[in-house]
Predict the 3D structure of the following.
Amino acid sequence: MAACTSVQPLDGKMLQSLGCCNVTVLGSAQSAQDKGDIEELCIITGSSFGKFSHPVVTTVQKHKNKACKCGTENAYVREYDIRTVGGWLDTASVTLIGFRYREVSE
């Protein structure tokens, strides 16, 4: 498992980066949609490889700020996985979706 992160736009367009930002991560798409209509902007994948601590929460913390590259401060967890490598080391991987809330028109 490589120690890299992938950020891919969902619409194929160049991503508008926010630079450095503070990303809020929700546990599911439903949690995000409960707060309003959303527009999904990008897929962020990453792993805990290269870290001493390998729980999913550590992996989310490691990769959540990549949502800034999508131009948003919001993401939700689409999926995660924990694997045992060599019988002793758990490595977590996550897929996050960077999204923004759609503006409500009156």
